[in-house]
Specification:
The complex is a heterodimer of chains A (172) and B (577). Chain A has 172 residues and is of the alpha+beta class. Chain A contains 4 helices and 7 strands. In chain B, helix 8 (253-271) packs antiparallel against helix 9. The longest helix of chain B has 38 residues, at 283-320. Classes of the chains: A alpha+beta (172), B alpha+beta (577).
């Protein structure tokens, strides 16, 4: 029985994940909460008692949603990136790439290097700001990405995979 | 690599092909060098096709928008008809003109290493396909095309994610055959072993079917010309009359029909008391409804079922009629279809996996369907979506005992697959899990709904109770019980049948409920594989295994749930090269 792969992602990737989770939560919270809150404020300014009651209810809903947002922030921004980083492991061995990932749904993948058709490092603006890069290997049946690696590490891995994959037949 | 280049004509203005045309050889067995046009029949065929679809859309729009009524009211027929005819002619003329322009600008060419296609009216496209990358060649011909003897030729390549096929829209059949032979000749890996075989024991009915098939297949039309294939047929078979009929009547869609019929009849039984009307209506109406409603409705239902059953048989006969499969050297050829006809040719070395599938009824009869999974390509003019059928149908309906023979003759590599005896079944815990998955959730959900319905009906005060409602409630519970039994049997069968095996070359995964699907994948066709575990599987100590090949348009994944964790890890180690 094999043990888990040994290498881990660069710890800085959690920052990138946190940032994108934060952006997601903020966008969704704004879209979901703002209209209700604004409506509550508008109704609250009115003098009719029914509308005042409605405003109170809507205000309560708004605060409820804000509470949920806070919870989501804790879960998605604080907890999950950390666990994801702990779970994400990989190895580039002589003949295969071995990946283990997933928080609830765990996946373990083997990509034989002789099936790798091309390999590349990619870097978006957020990754660049954190001096990170991702490594993508493409097979005839789709791509796999190792997301957060230090730039030097990513380049070295890319060259290593490229050398090992050279014997791969591009023909399937 | 296959590439499409936009040629640098300024502003994309059309420009005539500068190179001189060479006429295609009339009866030669090879293609002259140079660029060739496609068959001129394209202009009429495409013009008609596009024209009729435009007219159909126009008519649909007219009818749905109510413009029809306005037309009829506001205008006399005397000028509607000329306008309609004029419009029709104009539409067909315009589409034909566009088709003609496309035809004018279209050229194809083969060189020592590539097929080149030059196409496009405004945006010019050049496509180069190295023979080495050709996965399969397919001809299709509709009824009109078959009368003319021309085909639409599709060349499929493995071009990664953007997997598009190159198409020559119209070509003489003989030329398409030469092209096909040429492409396969220039690809290496021709197999040399294998013995020619012909069926000696042919019944009268088989002979009839073969003759009809030959007649239809041999309908080479007006322009097809003759072509003699040079490489020898090493193995060939067709579909006998008995097989064709049996395959038509044993499709699993028949089960669906039966289920619908049964469901409809029970519902009629449930609502029958409704027809005992208490309201004072004309006695004749009351009499008619009470006595005839149920029988008449049942008769209608049964008629519909029989008609759709017959249509299904007809459909199968039309699509599989004249089925023939053969192997010539390293190439597999399959052709089928009574009216529209389809020819597929694929190199043996391009087969990604073999799937042997038995529907529920066919399984009882001991028959199976064999399909080869290959890398499929989308038509260049087909945006997204799956192709109509994936892979190559090696045999639509074959006796289980013959599967081994066909596989060894058609795809000799798969001789090395694991035997039945090597198949390993799943641990006990998998049985509990399939029951929960397949029966537990189903019962939980629908029993809840049925209970809610029962309570709801009981809430109705007695003076408003109708006997039909209590009938309905009873029917719902009976249906639920029957379905639960059915699903329990299915789950038990799944556990008994689910199995897998691998040796150094091949992976076999078998699973199914009432039907049975066996997938055989060569290890070197697995692009990547792995194991998955959800939280429940983790607690039960099991994991799913999966293998992904490049078959299909993007890829194809085969999964088997609930191996013991240790066995799953062993599979993981097997995946390592």
């Amino acid at each position: 029985m094999r043990t888990l792969p040994s290498r881990k992602l660069d710890k800085r990737i959690t920052r990138v994940w946190r940032l994108s989770a934060l952006a997601n939560v903020v966008v969704w919270a704004t879209v979901g909460t703002a209209p209700i809150g604004v409506l509550a404020l508008i109704l609250g300014a009115s003098s009719s008692p029914e509308e005042q009651t409605a405003a109170t209810v809507l205000m309560a809903i708004t605060f409820g949603l804000l509470g949920l947002t806070g919870l989501a922030l804790i879960v998605f921004v604080v907890v999950i990136p950390k666990i994801r980083w702990i779970q994400w492991r990989f190895d580039v061995l002589d003949e295969e790439i071995d990946i283990h990932r997933g928080i609830f749904w765990r996946k373990r993948l083997i990509i034989p290097l002789i099936r790798v058709q091309n390999v590349e490092t990619r870097q978006g603006p957020i990754l660049r700001a954190n001096r990170l890069a991702s490594l993508t290997v493409a097979t005839a049946a789709g791509e796999h990405t190792i997301p957060g690696l230090g730039i030097e590490e990513a380049d070295a891995l890319r060259d290593q995979v490229a050398v090992l994959a050279r014997i791969a037949q591009e023909d399937v | 690599m296959r590439c499409a280049i936009r040629s640098p004509y300024w502003l994309g203005l059309p420009k005539k092909m500068s190179e001189p045309l060479t006429n295609p050889p009339s009866a030669a067995s090879e293609i002259a060098p140079g660029r060739h046009p496609m068959h001129p029949g394209y202009v009429i065929l495409n013009g008609l096709q596009v024209g009729t679809s435009i007219i159909a859309i126009g008519l649909a729009f007219l009818v749905t928008s109510g413009g029809w009524a306005w037309l009829v009211q506001g205008a006399s027929l005397s000028w509607i008809i000329p306008i309609a005819i004029g419009g029709l002619v104009a539409i067909i003329a315009v589409t034909s003109l566009v088709s003609w322009l496309y035809y004018q600008r279209y050229r194809w060419e083969i060189t020592e290493t590539d097929i080149h296609i030059y196409a496009g009216i405004i945006i010019k496209r050049q496509t180069h396909i190295p023979f080495q990358r050709v996965q399969a060649i397919e001809f299709r011909a509709g009824v009109v095309q078959r009368i003319l003897g021309i085909v639409r030729l599709k060349i499929e390549t493995a071009g990664g994610a953007t997997n598009k096929a190159a198409i020559i829209p119209a070509l003489k059949l003989a030329q398409a055959e030469i092209l096909r032979a040429e492409v396969f000749r220039r690809k290496k890996g021709e197999l040399s072993q294998g013995t020619p075989s012909s069926s000696a024991s042919e019944t009268e009915a088989d002979r009839l079917v073969r003759q009809v098939g030959d007649k239809l297949g041999g309908l080479r039309g007006l322009y097809a010309e003759q072509y003699d294939e040079t490489s020898e047929i090493e193995y060939e078979y067709g579909l006998s009359a008995k097989e064709l009929v049996l395959s038509a009547i044993s499709g699993d869609h028949n089960l669906v029909l039966l289920a619908v019929l049964f469901g409809g009849l029970t519902q009629l039984g449930a609502i029958a008391p409704l027809f005992n009307l208490d309201e004072p209506v004309e006695w004749i109406v009351k009499y008619a409804i009470a006595n005839y409603a149920v029988p008449v409705l049942s008769a209608i239902l049964i008629t519909i079922t029989i008609v759709s059953y017959l249509l299904g048989i007809l459909g199968t006969a039309i699509s599989y009629g004249g089925f023939k499969a053969r192997r010539r050297g390293g190439r597999i050829e399959v052709e089928m279809g009574l009216l529209a006809r389809q020819y597929q040719a694929v190199s043996v070395s391009r087969v990604q996996s073999v799937v042997i599938k038995q529907g529920a009824i066919r399984r009882l009869l001991g028959y199976a369907e064999i399909r080869l999974q290959t890398i499929d390509a989308l038509d260049t003019n087909q945006q997204g979506g799956q192709p109509r059928r994936s892979g190559v149908l090696l045999h639509p309906f074959v006796k289980l005992a013959r599967v081994a023979e066909i596989l060894s003759q058609m795809v000799p590599d798969y001789e090395e697959r694991c035997g039945e005896a090597e198949l390993r079944s799943l641990p006990k815990v998998a049985r509990r899990r399939v029951f929960i998955r397949h029966v537990g959730f189903f019962v939980g959900f629908y029993a809840g709904l049925a209970t809610a319905l029962t309570i709801g009906v009981n809430q109705i005060p007695t003076e408003y109770q109708i006997s039909a409602l209590s009938w309905l409630v009873a029917a719902v519970w009976i249906l639920l019980a029957l379905l639960t039994i059915g699903r329990s049997v299915a789950a038990a069968l799944w556990y008994r049948q689910a199995a897998y095996a691998y040796n150094s070359k091949m992976l076999t995964i078998r699973q199914g409920y009432f039907g049975l699907t066996t997938t055989i994948i060569g290890k070197r066709r697995i692009q990547w594989g792995g194991i998955n575990q959800n939280p429940f599987q983790r607690r039960a100590g099991v994991a799913s295994i999966q293998a992904t090949t490049a078959a299909g348009v993007v890829n194809t994944t085969t999964t088997l749930r609930d191996l013991s964790h240790a066995e799953a890890l062993a599979y993981l180690d097997w995946l390592r090269p």
